[in-house]
Amino acid sequence: MATPSPNISAPLFAVLSPAGAAAIAVIAIWGEAALATLARTFRPLGTKQQTLPLKERVGSVLVGHWQSDLDGEAEEELVVALVAPDAAEISCHGGRSAVARITQSLAREGCVLVDPALYVARSTCDALKLQAMERLTRAKTSLAAAHLLDQTRGALSSAVRYMIDSLERGDVAGARRQIKDLLTTARQAIHLTEPYRVTIVGRPNAGKSALLNQLVGYARAMVFDQPGTTRDVVQVTTALGGYAVEISDTAGVRETSEPIEREGIERTLASIATCDLALLVFDQSAPLTADDQAFLAQVLPRLTAALIVVGNKSDLPPQCSFEQLAAINTTIARAPSLSASALTGAGIRELLALLEKQLVPTPLAQGSPLLFSRELEQAFRQILAALDQSNDPRAIARQLAELLARS
Ligand SMILES: Nc1nc2c(ncn2[C@@H]2O[C@H](COP(=O)(O)OP(=O)(O)OP(=O)(O)O)[C@@H](O)[C@H]2O)c(=O)[nH]1
Ligand SMILES: [Mg+2]
């Protein structure tokens, strides 16, 4: 005889409280059809309709009675909490017969009795999922939201559980590989929750502020035909390739004894030290001078980030070339470069494309586990270091488990 195929959309239910042990018993029912099933047998007080739109009352707690036979008597008084569009918790009298009556009635409706641990696992939200949820509420782009949503659904949590399993089995090499894989995308993944920082630097009057305005598409920074116009760091946040990017326009760097300008230049230098990418802007319509050398001597030692060299004012006759610039310094020689005009907009589209390519070289795979914050990246670097030094894989497994645990 053929076995009947299981109904895969049947709601599941579980008795959460031990039978006959407490005054109140709680039965959970969940699954896509859970509330529709409940509506057939549960009558909230004050309603006579046969089918109630319970889905519209999610979040509320209803008092009523159980009535598995529509023409019969009310069988049990109970309270139903509609906890989700696909889940409810039924509280009834704690006695065995009351619980049996409801569970038998649910079984007759086609629901499947399962272990209560399944319900707990379904509703348990670990600390990593919670962190992702919190970040999701502040996501700046739809791409960031999509990747964070994956993490709220457990992409990272599952990867961490997998690492724990590997360590518990004594597969240290496997766990190390999994952690390293996760760390390879971390540099990019942290920018799902924190913008990339791009700093525009150059000598006064090179056209930095005009370039910022072109990049963001509106007149954010003041542009003026006077060296030393920008005094403080001017920041604008935009999006490139689905990532938030904060662009900083800075005070032009030169030798000066003027205290406010000097303070502005200090801020420029601090901004260079912390950015992810620097746009080094030259005025290619002016010949290179000793001041350029002095400027580069101040800026380049502080630069650890990626670099793009921009020859601005390409609408004017050229007075210096990229070859001359490259001859000054090998860091500049190795950097990608392009010509642009912040006045006419020539080369700006290419510059934006180059910026995107430098900042976001590879797209992150959909659904993949991601270390979406600097804190998480640091935690996994420490765990990797601990794994390299320790001969107790289970202790490392416990450290990983702590990342999942809610305080
Ligand atoms: N012809 C031409 N002029 C430009 C271009 N970009 C900027 N300028 C002009 O150059 C002057 C200086 O521009 P800014 O953007 O203020 O220069 P800056 O580098 O921000 O200068 P500081 O703030 O003093 O460091 C202004 O008169 C701009 O109109 C360009 O691509 N072509
Ligand atoms: Mg300026």
Beta-strand residue fraction: 15-25%
As for the CATH topology of the largest domain, it is Rossmann fold
Number of domains: 3
Low-confidence stretches: 1-5
What does the largest sheet look like?
Answer: 7 strands, mixed
Structure description:
With 407 residues, this protein is of the alpha/beta class. The protein has 3 domains: 12-123, Gyrase A, domain 2, CATH 3.30.1360.120; 127-185 and 365-404, no CATH class; 191-359, Rossmann fold, CATH 3.40.50. 41% of the residues lie in helices and 19% in strands. It contains 16 helices and 13 strands. The strands form 2 sheets. Strands 3-4-5-6-2-1-7 form a 7-stranded mixed β-sheet, sandwiched between helices. Strands 9-10-8-11-12-13 form a 6-stranded mixed β-sheet, with helices on both faces. β11, α11 and β12 (306-312) form a beta-alpha-beta unit. α4 (127-136) runs antiparallel to α5. The protein is elongated, with a radius of gyration of 31 Å. The two termini are 53 Å apart. It binds guanosine-5'-triphosphate and magnesium ion. Residues 202, 204-210, 223-225, 227-230, 251-252, 312-313, 315-316, 341-343 line the site of guanosine-5'-triphosphate (GTP).
